[in-house]
Amino acid sequence: MAKKDSYQEFLKEDFNKLFAGINLGDVQKHFLRSRWLDQVLWMEAKANSSRDRHYFLRITTIVGGVILPALVSLNINTTPKRDIIIWSTFGLSQIVAISAAIEEFFHYGERWRHYRRTVESLKTQGWQFSQLTGPYYNYASHEQAFNLFAGHVEDIIQRDVEIYATQVVQEKKEEKQNQEDHIFPQNTKITNSEEKKKEE
After folding, report:
1. Based on the structure, what is the number of domains in the chain?
2. Whole-prediction pTM value?
3. Long-range contact list for 19-25, CB < 8 A, 24+ apart?
4. pLDDT of 86-95, one tens digit each?
5. For residue 118, is it within any domain?
6. The domain containing residue 111 runs over which residues?
7. Do residues 92 and 71 touch, judged by C-beta distance below 8 A?
8. Is residue 188 situated within a structural domain?
9. 60-95, pLDDT tens digit by residue?
10. In the chain, how long is the greatest CA-to-CA distance?
11. Which residues of 152-170 are buried (b: 16+ CB within 10 A; e: fewer)?
């Protein structure tokens, strides 16, 4: 946790020093700190958090899945040890199932990759703007290139919001579809039984 906080502080301090050396107005520097840098630090933290949770859940599922067959295959006749093995197997199976279910529900792996792509895109725009390279190559000063930079930053943030919203909506549609798949077969059975009663 301390390493993550120190890295966040390093990024903040490093970019603030970079901004201080760029010839921009107060409003433009305020945009750099409050909009661009704020999003970079926030998404960096979200990417790291999602990565750590993804790794923890996946490793728990994989290691637990490897150990379970070994526990099941043990042939121990001693009652105390046998009870320990049985309860250990049951407990570990629950941990594996819960870990897999949490990862499947929250999609930490997808979130990690999503936040990482977005934050790296923002960083790239920031470095290119500071050096007047890439799309800002033809501009003589940072002040002239600022409107293009601000537009690119807003495009990246808007795209991030749209992708995230689309994923949430898609997950809700899939959940609703799964619920309907469980309901409709029951309704079909009820309808069929009612029709048979009428025929009789």
Report:
1. 1
2. 0.75
3. 22/130, 22/142, 23/141, 23/142, 23/143, 24/142, 24/143, 24/146, 25/143
4. 899 999 999 9
5. yes
6. 2-181
7. yes
8. no
9. 999 999 999 988 888 777 777 888 888 999 999 999
10. 90
11. bbeebbeebeeeeeeeeee
